[in-house]
Amino acid sequence: MAEKSLPERRVKRGGGRRAAVMVDVAKLAGVSYQTVSRVLHDSPHVRRDTRERVLDAIRQLDYRPSSVAQALVTGRSRTLGVVSFDTTLYGPASTLLGLEEAAHDAGYGVSIASLKSFSRAPVLEAVQRLRDQGADGIVVIAPQRSAVDALRHVTSDVPVVAVEGGPDDSVPVVAVDQLGGAVSATRHLLDLGHKTVWHIAGPTDWLEADQRIDGWRSALQAAGAEIPPLLRGDWSARSGYELAPQLTRTPGVTAVFVANDQMALGLLRFLHENGRETPRDLSVVGFDDIPEAAYFTPPLTTVRQDFSELGRRCLHVLLGQIESGQRSWSRVVVETELVVRKSTAVPRRR
Predict the structure, then answer these.
(1) Residue 105 CB-half CA count within 13 A
(2) How much is the pTM?
């Protein structure tokens, strides 16, 4: 026998169709509005035939659950707050995109607070503002050292996760393995036969820059290689271009690990303009694997960060706090991948 469907029913007011509410669904399905709520929240305590009737009524009425009403019932808005800093740099921007995608896949919206400064007061104000707007939990993209102190002062009743950096014992941290990525970049050059590897680092206040320096140094120390003087850039292609003469004027430089792809791009341009061939005269490794890295001249060997996985891991840690109502410290690390292209080779015999 064919299953009977519910009689078609439209909800009208004054000759025009109005949006259906939960009571309308309950009436059409012949159940209580509490049962409709259980179906919407996927409760196991609903009989199969009852669930089907409710779902059929929802389809017929084109019912759209009100996020405000759901928040009143569940105490949750299904919105997450993200504190980021105002930048177009590839790493932080891609981290934010990865978080938004993971939240969307989990049925959460995202509200973003962008800051000019990561000092304590602006960070705490942004966290409070997002909580006042009803955010269930907060993600702080904290790549700079100045954000670490601020995170220590976020009250323990706020579900919060720090991305890329944070205090060691007060909030959970989800981060890319910056140190491991730098080790793999440096080892790749050493394994090709370069006696040592120079490094163009990022700015001093950036935790990622410091971790990449640590990885570079530890790889050289493990290999018994000389540690050259450190060069400091500011993440921009311009700074890589301006630091390049220090490398070309120094005898014996055959390999350099650059802390991001933009600075590597500036270095490659200087080498090209001054008659130096890459990798014949100088092997270059970057970090990030920006979409354009494969189209540099030559295509850039670099360290890839998985920002989608970073977003998923971050969301998992944050939702765990929201569900349990407790903040438990943890540190989750996302592995990197070395992508070998045409900008590295064995050193040229002189």
Answers:
(1) 13
(2) 0.77
